[in-house]
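Box 3.1 A note on notation
Throughout this textbook, protein chains are presented in two layers. The first layer is the amino acid sequence; the second is a token string describing backbone geometry. Keep the layers aligned when reading.
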Amino acid sequence: MKKLLLRKNFQRTFAFLLTLVIVTGIAGIGFTAEARTTVDLHAFTWSEELRRPIQPVSGVGIQISIINQTGTLFNRNATTNRNGGGGVSNLNTVPNGSTANVTITNIPSGYRIYALDISMNRIRHVLNYEGQNTFQFTTYGTPWLNSFSVAVLFVPIIPTIPIEVRLDGTAIEFDVFPQVTDGRTLVPLRAIFEALGAEVSWNAETQTVTGTKGNTTVVLPIGSTSPTVNGQVVNIDVPGTVVNGRTLVPLRFVAESFGVHVNWDAEARQVTITS
């Protein structure tokens, strides 16, 4: 009998406590959830062929701030160590839907950012914005962000090989490097006209170059896509232009106007002119 009374008293007490927790929760007096957000940082060089990190990068600065409508929830700076890693912690709650801002500093010389590989609550997401050093995205979690890793992937900067122009096997010397605009090679006007054996004149008032060789006269107003050859309009897709005070003209149009053959080797970045 005594045991039975004790059991009934225990059941009543448990039912009372359970009711108290439910009522308290409904009344809004219950506990507030807090999430400990641990941020793991990594910086690697990236192999586009192997599609994986291949070398840790130390000394990379990573600044992370997370905000929402209530204000700043998280703001930390860290620097990767010799193993390419690092970490910071935050005790504040970071709810789903907050805005995360990541800025990368101390980018290693000779490298550019290839992508930012992030993981939030073990869900992976890659931001592939080459050349940027700032990123913004929305956090997600259920309902809190309680794990957050950032991996910065770097790739080497491949130097641009200057374009070489050869006329009948001999390189043409330019005082300004040729450049490619919308798939067309532009070169300094006087050098290309004179290399082709044409007499060249420049009208500064009308911004027009005129080249004459034998019975052929080429008139090319800078900025115009309608130059003339012996008075006949020839439509071109890229006009002559002025860059840093130097006048550049479309090489293929000028050369072919004087009856020579032009070939472009994209891999070698070489223009071959054959008379």
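Confidence is low (pLDDT under 50) at residues 1-35. The two ends are 119 Å apart (CA to CA).
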